[in-house]
Specification:
Layout (H helix, E strand, L loop, with lengths): L2 H9 L2 H7 L2 H16 L4 E7 L4 H5 L4 H11 L10 E7 L4 E6 L1 H4 L4 H16 L3 H19 L18 E2 L1
Parallel strand pairs: 1-2, 1-4
Antiparallel strand pairs: 2-3
Helix pairs in contact: 3-8, 7-8
Pfam families: TPM_phosphatase
Protein name: TLP18.3, Psb32 and MOLO-1 founding protein of phosphatase
Organism: Nitrosospira multiformis
Length: 168
C-alpha cells in the first residue's frame, strides 16, 4: 500500500480539475477534438478524473485499469468502425492512458500510444495542461488520419461520441 499515493488521491479533488481545466481550456480541448475528427473517421474522447474512489485506491488500482473501465462506461467501444480512442487523465497520479478500440489498436502499436502519453505527461509536469491535451489529441488524430481516412465530408457523417471533455 503506497501511503503517498493514497494521500495524493485524497487531496486531489474536482476543484483542482476545474482549476487546471477551466471552462476556456475545456472549450479549447473540445475544439481540438472537433478539428481532429474532420480529417478522419475515428472518434476521440477525452476524460479527466481527479482521483480514484477509496476502494479502488486501497486495492491499488492502476490508472490503466481505470482507463479501461472508463472506456467501457463512456461506450467509446461502441462506434461503427471500432475506431474510438479514449485519452484518459488520472490527475492525482498525473498518469495519461490511451485506450483504443480494436479497429485502430491493430494498426497502431502500444509503443506509439505510450509515446503520446509520455509527451502529455511531460507537458503536465511543466504546468501545460491545456496545450498538453491538445497536442495529445492532435497526435492521436494523426494516427487515425493514417488509418481511417474520411469517406465523405464530416458534415455528412454522424458524430458517434460527444466531443465535450468528460470530467469524472
Amino acid at each position: 500500500m503506497n501511503l503517498t499515493r493514497i494521500l495524493r488521491h485524497f487531496l486531489t479533488g474536482r476543484a483542482m480539475v476545474r482549476r487546471l481545466f477551466p471552462h476556456a481550456s475545456l472549450a479549447a480541448i473540445e475544439q481540438a477534438i472537433k478539428q481532429s475528427e474532420i480529417s478522419h473517421e475515428g472518434e476521440v474522447c477525452f476524460a479527466v478524473e481527479a482521483a480514484l474512489d477509496t476502494v479502488p485506491l486501497l486495492r491499488d488500482q492502476p490508472a490503466r485499469a481505470r482507463a479501461v473501465e472508463v472506456f467501457s462506461q463512456l461506450r467509446v467501444w461502441d462506434t461503427e468502425h471500432n475506431n474510438g480512442v479514449l485519452v484518459y487523465l488520472l490527475l492525482a497520479d498525473r498518469d495519461v492512458e490511451i485506450v483504443a478500440d480494436r479497429g485502430i489498436n491493430v494498426k497502431v502499436s502500444a509503443e506509439e500510444w505510450e509515446k503520446i502519453c509520455r509527451e502529455m505527461e511531460t507537458a503536465f509536469r511543466q504546468g501545460h495542461f491545456e496545450s498538453g491535451v491538445v497536442a495529445g489529441i492532435a497526435a492521436v488524430g494523426n494516427h487515425l488520419q493514417k488509418h481511417f481516412r474520411p469517406e465523405k465530408e464530416r458534415a455528412g457523417r454522424e458524430n458517434e461520441l460527444p466531443d465535450t471533455p468528460v470530467i469524472l
